[in-house]
Each structure stands twice: as structure tokens, then as C-alpha cells.
Specification:
homodimer; 132 residues; alpha+beta; 3-stranded mixed sheet; globular; DNA-binding
Chain lengths: 132, 132
DNA sequence: CGTATAGTGATACCCGTTATCATTTACGTC
DNA sequence: GACGTAAATGATAACGGGTATCACTATACG
């Protein structure tokens, strides 16, 4: 499946981007994805990469995380809500679900009268393959 | 207590910054803090604000969070490990601890062979005072 | 096929943050 | 208190990720 969403046209650039995202199993920044596209001969402008990633993110077809330095990274993901265990060296990611976390978040928010609540939980570490 | 750390000199600028941080009960960005300093007559350069905040953060005297847009915000905090429930309108924050989250994080990391693990959990919402 | 319209890309721009470097300040020592 | 030195400051340039602009191109659909 390489379509992006209803109302979005299918272009070579977007298909190339989705293709790259499918081949990679970890989080990659927009710039990395742009470079990867260039390497395989797909000349896609950086602006288009950002636009398409945003489309994909809005359609929940990719997950976005923000690294410890604030840079955004993207990855093809399942659609259920989940968190990530991300290798900060290679970007490889493991999806993890934790119902306990969700319920705790909801409880603590309710307890303090907060509404319209969202949360962000990312776990960063070094995976076994990337140990020094 | 307004000292910053061993090996750091005490300057008017840093004391003013710490003072402002003590008066405020929510997260504030570097630029907001810089503006607050200006309002109360303390002329502190923006570069110094960033440098001092980094010092304070390194000394674990302030907590840093990154908003959903990637901007860093700072707040005087207790030194124990904890998470935050942050109002995305006024910046007011509630500290929260969740041992269950810590143990879950450690377990999932160990299970997948990740080492040198850190995690980030921030909860954003709208507090009761800021409801429309 | 032809047209309306979404998409593209080069580039300028924005904004938060960091680096540079000359000047100033804090602080231990005499 | 005066000195000397290393740290700190601040104005500003530079940097980097991300977005806006706008003329041009390509897609979808009748």
C-alpha cells in the first residue's frame, strides 16, 4: 500500500518517499530521508519531503518523534497508539504498548483538572547492535 | 538558595535569572525569561540567558522540556526524578511520579537488549483555569 | 483532449539556539 | 584595597531545522 490519503494525488515523489520509508525500519529525519531519496536517483525537493511527511503524519501513516535535540524523525508505523524504544545511534525502533501508562496519564490529568490531554513517551537507548 | 554550582561564579545576571525562575510556577521559554528579566530592569543578554539555563540544567537545578513544537522551556524543580503535567496555555506544571512507568520502561528496554536508557514523558493539557 | 487545481522545487525567510570575540566582572592572592 | 587572571557577559553573526512564496508542472477527471 503506497497511497497517502483521500484527496491527495499520487505523485512520483510521494511514492518514492513512501517506498523509502517502507524499506527502512527505524526513525529517520526529513533530511536523512531527503538524502536517501537522492542516493537512489529520486530527485525530490526538500520542501516536498517536509510537505509529504506532514501529510503522512496527519493521515497517521507515519509516526513522528522528536529527538532529545528537538529534531523530528519519521517512521512507518502501525496505527494503534503505542510508544517507541528507539536506538539513538541507528534509529531502530521497537513499538511498545503500555495500557498502565495510558490509564495513569488519564488519572493524573483528571485529578488535577486538566482536559484535552495528550502525552509523549519516548524511550531512548543504545541497541545491542550499536554497543561500542 | 541562589547559587548555581561548584566552579560557577555568582553574577548579577545569574542571580536575577534564578530569582525570576523562583517566582514563576510554570515552564517558561528562554525568550520569555529574557523578556521577564527585561521587565524588571535586569538587562541580561539573550546569550547569557541561554548559557545560564544550560548551566542550571546541567546542574539539575532546572528541568527542561521540549514543547510539541520543539521549543525548550525551563522550570525550577525538585531534584527527584519525575514527570510533568503541563498546561499548554499558561505553562503551569504539576510534578508527578509514577514508579510503574519507570519499571515498565526498564523492563521493556532490558527485554530488547537496549542499554544506556533514558526516557521522556510529558503530559500536555489545558488546566482548569485556562479553559475557554 | 483539455482544463482546473493540487503538487513541486528553488529559494528566501523565520525563529530558536549557538559560536565568536572584544570587553567587563568576580574572586583569590598579595 | 590593588592586582591579575580566568570566567562571564553581550552584541551580533552564524547556524540549522522548518515553513512560506511563487512560478511552473503534472495529475485527475469530465
Amino acid at each position: 500500500m503506497t497511497s497517502i490519503g483521500v484527496g491527495a494525488r499520487s505523485t512520483k515523489q510521494r511514492e518514492a518517499l513512501v517506498h523509502v520509508l517502507d524499506e527502512v525500519d527505524g526513525f529517520r529525519s526529513a533530511q536523512q530521508l531527503h538524502a536517501l531519496l537522492g542516493e537512489r536517483g529520486a530527485k525530490v525537493g526538500i520542501a516536498t519531503v517536509y510537505r509529504s511527511l506532514q501529510l503522512l503524519a496527519d493521515a497517521a501513516l507515519v509516526d513522528v518523534i522528536h529527538s532529545e535535540e528537538g529534531e523530528a524523525s519519521y517512521r512507518r508505523c502501525s496505527t494503534r497508539h503505542h510508544h517507541h524504544l528507539v536506538c539513538r545511534v541507528c534509529g531502530r525502533a521497537v513499538e511498545a504498548q503500555a495500557p498502565a501508562v495510558e490509564t495513569w496519564v488519564a488519572a493524573i490529568a483528571a485529578e488535577h483538572g486538566f482536559s484535552d490531554v495528550s502525552h509523549d513517551l519516548e524511550i531512548f537507548g543504545t541497541c545491542a547492535d550499536c554497543l561500542p
